[in-house]
Every structure is written in C-alpha cells, then in structure tokens.
Amino acid sequence: MSKAQAVFVCQSCGMTHTKWAGQCSGCLSWNTLVQESFSAPPGSLKPETSPSKISRLSKLNFETLDAPDEAPQRMVTGIEEFDRVCGGGIVPGSAILLAGDPGVGKSTLLLQVTAHAALRGLKVAYISGEEAVEQVRGRASRMGVSKAPVDLAAETSLRTILDALKRDTYDLVIIDSIQTLWSDAIDAAQGSVSQVRACAGELVRLAKKNRIAMILVGHVTKEGQIAGPRVVEHMVDAVLSFEGERGYPFRILRGSKNRFGATDEIGVFEMGDGGLREVPNPSALFLGDNDERSSGSAVFAGIEGSRPVLVEIQALVAPSALGTPRRAVVGWDSGRLAMILAVLESRCGLGFGGKDVYLNVAGGLKINEPAADLAAAMALVSALLDQPLPKASVIFGEISLSGEVRGVSRMEARMKEALKLGFSNAIAPVAAQDNAPFEVKTYSHLVNAMSAFDLQC
Ligand code: TYD
Ligand code: MG
C-alpha cells in the first residue's frame, strides 16, 4: 500500500491545505480545517486511463448519438411538482443533489418519487445508508406505495454500491444520503469533505457512463459546518433544495442550479400522515381562509418560477419598550424591510421610530422578489395606522429609494391569478393598467399610494 499523504481539508468549503491553519484561506472560516489523508486508490477505484475520444461539434451526426440535438428526453416520474422543478422530468444520465435540513422530508419525497417512477415502468433503486430496509418498507406502506417495484438496499460502502449498480441497468438511483457513504480508498471519516467528494465523484461518473439518473441526498446544517453538499454542488447537473419552516406542514422544492431547466421553479408539497401531498394551487394555501383581513395584512401577487402565487404579508407595529426598537422579519429580507421603513419615513413622513416592527410572510414561504416592496409597505402603513386595506385587493410593485413605484414582470399574470381567487381589484404601478382584468388603482409614487388609507401625507 502506498504511503498516505496527510492534508488538511476545510469542512466548510472543501479547500485542501498542506499545513494546518486556524483560518481557511479559501472561505475565511475559522477552525474548519481537519486532517485527512489520501492514499492511492486501490483496485476498482483507479481512474480510467483509456484515451478520450474527441469529436468536432459540427461533424457530429445527431441521429447516431444517444442524445438528440434538441431538448433532452426526460423521464417523467408522475409527481408533477417534482418533475416541473427538474425542468419537465429527470434527464437520463443526469446527477441531481437534493439538499435540505435533516427531517425536512427528503427521504419521504424521494421514496414517493421512486415509487411513482417504478409504477410507470422505470427501473429504480433506492439505496439508504441511514435506514434499514424494513424501516424504508414501513414508511412506504404508511404512504400507500409498498407495492411499487422499487429495488431497496441498505448500504454505505461505495464499492459495494458501485458493483451492484454495474450489475444491473437502472434508469434512476437514489443515494440517501451522500454523507453516510464511505470509500475504502480514502482514509477519512464518514461524512468528511474528502469522503463526500470522492463518493459523489465516483457516483456521478457512473451516472454519466451508464446513463443512470442519480439523485444524491445531502444534509445541510444551519451553520453549514458539515458542508459536504457544498462540494458536491459543482459536480452535479442540478441542485434542488427542499425547504420548510418548522411548525408548518408546507414544504417547498426549489431549484438553485439546473443544467436542463429553469432554476426559479418551485414545487409545493404538504406533509401529512400519508407522506407528502402535492399542492397544485399554492395561492389558496398561503392566503389562509380568512376573508375579512385585519389591519396590517396585505395580499401580495407574486411569481414563483413560472407560476403566479398569492401570499399574505402581515405586519405589526407596536410601541417599543427597548432603547433600540426591534425589527423582526420572517420570510423576507431584513435589509429590504429596513429600506422600505426608511423610504416610508423620509419620503412619506410616517414615523416608525420608537416602535417595534414585525413582518411575516404567511405559510412559511420565503419571498425574494423586489415586486413585494409595495405590498410590504402597505402592510406596514396599515399596521401603523390600524386601518385595514381595501377589501379584495392584491398588491404588487417595486419601490425605489426615491419612493417611486415601479413596474414589475408579468403583471397581467399576477392579476389573472388574483381574479381566479376572487379578488376584484389591485393596488399597482401605473404600467399595470394595460390589459388589467379588473379595476386597478395605480400609483407612480408611494406618497400617492397612501390615499388608499384616506390619509393626507
Ligand atoms: P424524512 O423524509 O425522514 O426527512 P429527511 O430525510 O429530510 O431527514 O421526514 C421526516 C419527517 O417527516 C418526520 O419528522 C416525520 C415526517 N413525516 C410525516 O409527517 N408523515 C409521513 O408520512 C412521513 C413518512 C414522515
Ligand atoms: Mg432521510
């Protein structure tokens, strides 16, 4: 056996160092370097040495290639919310990383995906490094999919897994999770960056070579400490994250990298006793059942991926007992809240000084669009004045630092979704007037929008 070479690997970003240091020079995190050692990969894990075949793009004859020249063919799993986030189905031979906090429901989602895919005739294997086969079967029967022809294995040795996958021809393989695998070629602890990187590298290589779609599950911790998935992100074709707020049953699947589709799509699921249920119309979910909205509540007409989604934004303004008033925000950017408050104070003359301000996006959704500015501002003013907003209104529009209300993308689609859900008017930028399906109160400046409250600014 060749001599193992000691290296120090940052557990946060994966950078390798020859000497130990208190701080990683790559990502500047402290105390993340851990000694690991590489030894020469024995036996089957040796890199292949056959020369690469190089072809001229213009000379390639597409009819003779596996992949056609246009859109790649896709395997539809039947879980529509999942297929859409993947870009319309899983591309054969692609590698996908599904990342998420422990307990969010990654295993549940993938068991459901594999079961549905198997029932549609795909050959699938679910390899669990975390649960015994009986546990996976128990979960499948609770979810009512125990009859699906899925091949199950509880295995953590990379070598055994690779051998098994080479023996059979699978369309789709799930590895749950990449942190539990270990390769005997690497002298490092299970879950360490070196192990995760080596195992993911081998699996992705097999996926490409044998045209197996491979989904790797990766846990991320809040601190990003065991950041195995970070190093895997570069190796895979798509990175999906599964998110959910604690205490809410809703789970959101979001694409953050996708070589075969858009990255801004979301899939919405609801966790229940029988596993995850798809939510094809998320607007109804994020709005709640309350028809009569109280002060501080505004309905934002947003766009998530290709779909319009209506979300309730709630604000509370209360006198503060603290020297520095509290600003708390859930589901939105706190920097953006500070900006909106500053615009309301300096351009509209409204005083939030000495008051605690809370902003919450209902249903556990996270909004990233600047189009939510106007809705957040209206919710804040409504809470400050203790006056509800006009009934059955949706709000959207971006606010500039000067207080100008700007147009946003896909305004007609936003209003059409609102109309479908029983809303009859909108508070919006001037440009929304064109093709509006109902009455729209348009404003060019935030000061003018205050007239929605019968207020002199
Ligand atoms: P799991 O898929 O094991 O999470 P992960 O793989 O991301 O760690 O999901 C675990 C949670 O899901 C657990 O808290 C229980 C909940 N759950 C349900 O509420 N209903 C169900 O039918 C299942 C299978 C799980
Ligand atoms: Mg799991």
From TrEMBL:
A motif (RadA KNRFG motif) lies at residues 257-261. Keywords: ATP-binding, DNA damage, DNA repair, DNA-binding, Hydrolase, Metal-binding, Nucleotide-binding, Stress response, Zinc, Zinc-finger. The keyword DNA damage applies. Gene3D superfamilies: 3.30.230.10, P-loop containing nucleotide triphosphate hydrolases. It holds the Pfam family ChlI. ATP binds at G100, D101, P102, G103, V104, G105, K106, S107. Residues 356-457 are annotated as: Lon-protease-like. Residues 71-220 form the RecA family profile domain. SMART domains: AAA. Coiled coil: none annotated. The keyword ATP-binding applies. PANTHER family: DNA REPAIR PROTEIN RADA (PTHR32472), DNA REPAIR PROTEIN RADA-LIKE PROTEIN (PTHR32472:SF10). Belongs to the RecA family. RadA subfamily. Plays a role in repairing double-strand DNA breaks, probably involving stabilizing or processing branched DNA or blocked replication forks. The middle region has homology to RecA with ATPase motifs including the RadA KNRFG motif, while the C-terminus is homologous to Lon protease. This is DNA repair protein RadA. The gene is radA.
